[in-house]
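haha ok so turns out i had the wrong file open the whole time. this is the CORRECT one, sorry everyone. sequence first:
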Amino acid sequence: MMNVIINGTPYDLPDGTTVAQAVARLTTATTGVAVAVNEEVVTRGSWDSTRLTERDRVEVLTAVQGG
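then structure:
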């Protein structure tokens, strides 16, 4: 297990967890989602191949419609 911070909250995740798997824990949205790991944007095409490591800081942002 490894500890990562997602949107300011600590999570224990299995070793080798990808960005895509981490995002799936937080939202079921399939569009309007942006991710940064350690303050660097991860493109959507890289989510499945980008593995998180111990103490990574992940920010998951979702677009909200309305006004």
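The chain has one helix and five strands.
again sry for the mixup
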